[in-house]
Design brief:
The chain is α/β, with parallel strands linked by helices and 90 residues long. The chain contains three helices and four strands, in the order βαββαβα. It has one domain: NAD(P)-binding Rossmann-like Domain (Rossmann fold). The chain has a four-stranded parallel β-sheet with strand order 3-2-1-4, with helices on one face. It is globular, with a radius of gyration of 13 Å. 26% of the residues are buried. Bound molecules: nicotinamide-adenine-dinucleotide.
Length: 90
């Protein structure tokens, strides 16, 4: 399967990315690398054929559309989040 994981550099997302890559799925990560994002958590996946990282905002409709079409995405896990209540309300 071809999966898009948004927020894949976050706590929950990065663990899911590792699981899906290990299972042999094709995984594209879209993450804006806000204060919560940490590329270090994905560093050991760099260079794998079935993993790629794109820095971008899930609110960028054109970018998301291109990813869905170009990569033939079958499923999306949306784990992009603001992890402080005041920020998430905003
Ligand atoms: N951490 C937990 O224990 C836990 C438990 C249950 C549910 N959840 C839910 O899982 C989701 C993820 O939580 P988490 O703890 O992994 O959060 P996190 O803060 O660790 O990760 C969020 C990620 O989203 C990215 N992000 C933020 N805004 C973005 C945007 N506009 N576009 C692209 N990327 C963006 C950040 O850069 C970061 O990498 C949340 O919805 C949270 O409520 C978390």
């Amino acid at each position: 399967m071809n999966y898009l994981i948004t927020g894949g550099a976050g706590f929950i997302g990065s663990n899911l990315v590792h699981l899906l890559v290990e299972q042999g799925h094709n995984v594209t990560v879209l993450d804006f690398l806000t204060y919560a994002g940490n590329l270090y958590s994905l560093a050991n996946l760099e260079g794998k054929d079935n993993y790629s990282f794109i820095r971008g905002d899930i609110a960028d409709g054109n970018l998301v559309s291109h990813i869905l079409i170009d990569r033939g995405i079958h499923g999306i896990f949306n784990l992009a989040a603001e992890n402080h209540v005041d920020r998430s309300i905003g």
